[in-house]
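Q: A reviewer asked whether we had any structural model of the full assembly, not just the individual parts. We don't, so I'm hoping you can provide one. Inputs are below.
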Amino acid sequence: MITIAERINGMFLDVKRAIKEKNASVIHELAKRQTEAGATYLDINVGTAAADQHDAMRWLVETTQEAVKTPLAIDSQKLDVVKAGLEVAKNKVMINSSQGEPEALDIYIPLAQEHNAALICLTMNKDGVPQDVDTRVEIAATIVSKVLEHGMDMDKVFIDPIILPVNVDKKQPGYMLEVFSQIKLLSDPQPHITVGLSNFSQGTKEKSLLNRTMLIMAVAAGLDTALLDVLDQDLMDAGICAEMILNKQIYSDSFLKAARS
Amino acid sequence: MMQIPNVAEKWTGAVKEVTIGATKEEGGTRGKTVTIGGTNSLPFMDFDGKPGHKPVIALDVYDTPPEDWPEPLLKHYEDVVNNPANWAKKCADEYGADLICLKLDGIHPDKGNKSAGETINTVKSILEAVDIPLIIWGCENDERDNEILPKVSEAAKGERCLIGGATQGNYKTITAVCLADGHNLITQAPVDINIGKQINILVTDLGFPNDRIVMFQTTGALGYGIEYCYSIHERGRIAALSGDRQMSTPVICDVGHESWRAKESKASDSEAPQWGSFANRGIMWEAITAVTLIQSGVDIIRMNHPEAVSIVKKHIEKLT
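A: Here is a predicted structure for the entire assembly that you could use as a starting point for your response.
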């Protein structure tokens, strides 16, 4: 499973403070720990509090790269902040994220191609986040057709149908599973399907258990990557088990270890 | 006209390259080395990616005369079965072997219980007689293998042999000596992909580099479980190409021994008149087993009969 580690994000207080004080050791530590825990990508998000988001993004990317060679996911809703991160990124990189409108995709897909980057595309448009299955799949189809139009490699495309907190609308988790199954059928080869998993359990108790259970059900429905807390070992083990059960990995007595190697 | 879409499969992983044999410059005495693996596509699907190195053929040499070889096979070796060095030379000079596989059946308590000294002499005599790389295969009695193989490994230090086999129940000694003496290692599983993967994890945990491992899933010949063996090789190769690092090692199979112990290869004309000529049956059995397994993704094929070798070599040339 492709994992995008969520902790280098200015929404977390330790990272917010580190950005403000330019305290590199906090970022180095998070970069190393998440890499050791099996992160495929490290998400880099400056949050909302930084005074100069461009400067903060450049500093976070450069500081992370001092500690690890792990690929980075440059995470911002602002195009010029993403560009600031891309400019200093030396490692393999992902852009997180573009919205699913054709106008946005026409900007982000060429940008990703220019940097040989992977791209997360959200199934949201100018009307916001859809609340139903059909609109999400419709936007996913727009994303797939734009990717084909620009000749981008489908293996670099990650469609995120935006998971909502479980305590907001009880129909949403079921909708998500349906959306995963349908996105899989949009093209062959298929795009990756991803979610920001921690959003699912936001504001709840038993976060780890909820995340873990949703991850297993989502993997069964076609999810193959997620932005998540890679430091939650039970969660990572559950993801590895789910993929092994689906025969995506060959069983061996040391399969957890093998999946991390 | 409509453009034909590119349907090439893109794999993310590749099979590791393993080199067997070391030249003088590399600390050994071999005239040639053999490199296997390196592919990032399924066998002979060259349009998907790099084909890697062609499958190679290792001819078996035994340290004790084989007791159960039928006449159509034995007649090609009758003059050399008592002399492993001459046997190896014949395989290299006349029968086109890429490698020699010395099978140490003679160290087994039931088949001669040969000493370490005798075995070291045999290994040295073969290394002197031929300049192609050597595979050394124990007798599959753990106690005797653990006693003899370390000494043999040390005697052949620097030659970068391929030594086997490490099993789930017995891997520590052989892994340690191969690591110390610079040899490659065969990891062995009983037609079981899960154990095959596990044994690779176990030996790499001991610090053995995974670009010096060759996997062996006990081979089944045509009519004797070849389909199990085929699916395991195929599943393992797909896993390797999909990025499973523990499965990304080249594969060896034992076609000669398994084919020639089949009753179809052994039954004489009078015993099985309806099965076609005794003289050719075993050769066909061996050749068909080999060409079938080649499609599943194998890198070294252990063989016996010179005519079967010639058929399989031609087949490999045709496919590559």
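A: Points you may want to mention in the reply: Chain A touches chain B through twelve residues (CB under 8 Å). Strands of chain A lie at 2-5, 41-45, 72-75, 93-98, 118-122, 157-160, 192-193, 225-228.
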